[in-house]
Sequence to fold (366 residues):
Amino acid sequence: MSYKPNEALRKFNGESSHYRLWADRMKDHLARSNPYWKVILKNLEMATNPITRDWLIDQFTHGVNAWTLSEKLETFICTWVNDALYSRRSQLAGGESQAGNGFEIWRQLYLEHHGGAEAVKLGGIRRLQEWPRCTSFNQLNQHLGSWLECLERYNSELFNCPSVLRSMILGIIPADYEDEILVKPEVQTYSEIIDFCKRRTTYKKNKALAELARRPPNSRMASLGPHNEPTRTEEAPSEEQMPSWAMKLFKAQGSPPPPMAVGERPAKKIRDDRNEDNLMAATREQRDQKPNGRRAFNLKFRYSGCWHCGEAGHSRKANPAKKILGCSKFEALKARNNGAPPAGYKGAYEKARDIAWDKFSKKKSS
Fold:
């Protein structure tokens, strides 16, 4: 048994919500010196009767007397519990006559804080029934893993009720995943739903990574923040780096912009009335570029109702943060088109906006 410092270990404070992590850390630490400790502790948790000193003295585990191991475990447990639990060590061991019985202490801690008591099991069942819906696909795998663990630990009887499990798991996955599954008759059991969610999540993550890879290197580096600013290279300024009005001025003169070396100071500007006139004309042209005013019209256009179906009470896209429901018709439409609206798609908002623009254009021209 190793008594070397381990940063992963923390003293158990007696709160049941912290017991599971503490117990798992203790098992991992003990297994560093001998992997059989995990088997021993697992058997202690499954024991239904008290483990006494008289019985342990006559038993041997892997060639070592069981009472000797029990005393070592008692010393180790007392090192990693708070003062309140430390003062109860004799009571947890089974009384003064059982002092030093670390096996019984471990069993009692498990019964009190994990899954032995009926109240703990009832709490686990209620937790499973009240499991919230996941709203982020980045956290979905962890969400489903915790749900499965709770199901196996506290309510394993539900494995014999596939229709109940299907209904429960559909209520905890994102709404758009649920809409996709409802139109896929081949996805029925809870395990098939979990596999579908994992594949869909992997696809979305890969799609996001592909979109990131498509961005220019400068934009990707800019997202790293000021502390990761890329080193400037000794290149002449490109057309993308120059203002649009300057590029128009050079094109009007029929000559490309002159390159400027790094560190070179610009030459003293000489006033030229012709260049000034061209520059002012290019600036006015850029400022007055409003071919039909459609962009300004779109910004001012207001529409009440769902942007897909036009009905009130929900939006085209859900917003859990603002408790806004999404449009099930829009999600069903995307599900039929591989997760995206069809080409040339227009919802109720776009159609109403086009009609309003036509009326505005006719009125303006008359």
Observations:
- The mean pLDDT is 80.
- The beta strands are 60-61, 64-65.
- The CA atoms of residues 78 and 86 lie 6 Å apart.
